[in-house]
Amino acid sequence: MNFASNEFVVFLLAVWGLFLVLPARFRAPLLLLASYYFYATWSLPFVGVILITTSIDYFASKLLFSSPSPAKRKAILWSALSVNLFVLGFFKYCNFFLDATHSAIKAIGWHTHVPAHLDILLPLGISYYTFEAISYLMDVYRGSRPSKSWLEYNFYIMFFPHLISGPIVRFNELSPQYAQPLEIPSKERVCKGIELIVLGYIFKAIIANSCVAIADPVFGAPEKATVLETYLGALAFTTQIYFDFMGYTHIARGVSLLFNIELPLNFNHPFTAANISNFWERWQISLTRWIRDYIFIPLGGTRRSFPRVLVNLFLIMFICGIWHGSGWRYVIWGAYYGLLVVAYHSYKKIRSRLLGAHENAILQNKIYSVGSTLLTFAAVYLACVIFRAPAVDGALIMFGKLAQFGALFNDIHVCLSTAEYTIFGLFTLLFLCCFAGPLAERIYTAAMRRLPYFCKVQLVTAAATASWVFCAPDMQPFIYFQF
Question: Which of 68, 240, 295, 483 is most buried (CB neighbours < 10 A)?
Answer without folding.
Answer: 240
